[in-house]
Design brief:
GO molecular function: calcium ion binding; peptidyl-prolyl cis-trans isomerase activity
Function: PPIases accelerate the folding of proteins during protein synthesis.
Main location: endoplasmic reticulum
Radius of gyration: 47 Å
Structural class: alpha+beta
Number of domains: 5
Organism: Leptocoma aspasia
Number of strands: 28
Oligomer: single chain
Pfam family, one: FKBP_C
Helix content: 10-25%
Amino acid sequence: LLLLLGVLGAPALGDPGPLEDVVIDRYYIPKICLREAQMGDFIRYHYNGTFKDGKKFDSSYDRGATVAGVVGVGRLITGMDRGLQGMCVNERRHLIVPPHLGYGSIGVAGLIPPDATLYFDVVMLDIWNKNDKLQITTLSKPQRCNRTVENSDFVRYHYNGTLLDGTPFDSSYSKGSTYDTYVGTGWLIKGMDQGLLGMCAGEKRSIIIPPFLAYGEKGYGTVIPPQASLVFSVLLVDFHNPKDGVFLEHLEVPESCKRRAVTGDFVRYHYNGTLMDGTLFDSSYSRNQTYNTYIGKGYIIPGMDQGLQGVCMGEQRRVVVPPHLAYGENGAGKYKIPGSAVLVFDVHVIDFHNPADPVEIETVFRPEGCNVTTRNRDFVRYHYNCSLLDGTRLFSSHDYEKPQEVTLGANKVIEGLNSGLLDMCAGERRVLIVPPHLGHGESGARGVPGSAVLRFEVELISMEEGVPEGYLFIWHGEPPASLYEQMDLNKDGGIPADEFSTFIKTQVAEGKGRLMPSSDPEKVIADMFRNQDRNQDGKITPDELKLKSDEDQEKIHEEL
């Protein structure tokens, strides 16, 4: 069809004279024109119709509804059919339609007189064709995309919905929550069902849906007119399938993994918890404290119970948990987790143990000819380095001037370290792994986190044979028959502290007995004297002096 196009001045519009064709004034042309109306296209438009003198004879605005129809097939007056072709969405035109291309010499009774020239002010709102397909434009896409949306998946997405002319009709953002639904099950309009397929979590798309894949001839309420094309700007927040299990991604696994966590183990780990779009909802790092729990016992969400199975100490793992294995449809308000949200946990396992674990002992070096080994009640000197299993240094005897000294079995060190120091030779080196129930327990200690597994590197420097519990001195043979007389060196009938000390030291020097090993023998002897000087008058009398074995026997009789 031959159209007269061009911008006409006011005098020409006001008095065009006899017209052979439609006069078109394109007084507003949008900068972007993705499509022009062609013969056979469905269009929606608004218009005002007036006569030459400006008197209005019709207006779609006054009716509150756009006009929809097919252009170029004779369903409109010929002048309008011609004047609308080639228009872009949002373009505005003035049309002057001569009588022979309008209502001719007959007119419209009571509305349009015969031989009337008609003036139309038109704005194009929508263009589509029955052969149109969905138009999908990817606006942005994450670099990593391990999975895309398929039919029967449950999706959570944000959207802005507009008509083709940009008029907004709905937005999830204004509601403050995502739109959550299944894909491909008929819960959405067909165009959206198709437009979401193949999306990645975090992807943004523009989806243009023709009316026959949207709300068609009926439209939707007052917000979507009949035969309206719809434009959705979509951000896919996350998606899952009801059949999904936990997805694991091993980010970093130590080269040496002697043991993997199983049900019943107690695990200490750090984590960052995010939604699939990266929104952080919780972090143990922010509290500067690991999360500590048993796994496989129902103390944590099922997805994490499963996701921590098989971890190594020191492993970094990503655990993706679908909502049916997390907080379900209700979410968790405390953590600002929306309903039906997929959760992503980036986990760093610090350590784990089982309540039945013993001390793990690895002998690094053992001297040849090792015949004498440590036993409980022995006095030992040793060096040590203590750390957490992630390498965090806690304590070291090398920070002090001399080795650590302790009597084994005297409850002076944690049970696990005491066990690890038994049966050692002087010069032997070991690595000890001490579970918390043999260490500092759930409460921890100064500088030691609660429930922490400890690693000790120990080297035994020296050892002295100990004495039985409760004894400060033992005889190597039978004690002298006349013990008091031998101890009373000046034979004055009383034994002061200096005589007592001289006697005991002599017995030790002659190999007849030994003191409880200690870094301060004088204190041990002073304690012995204090125990024998029962009335604390500064000397021991014959009635006060008693052997430990005799005292124990007397106590037995008293109890009997």
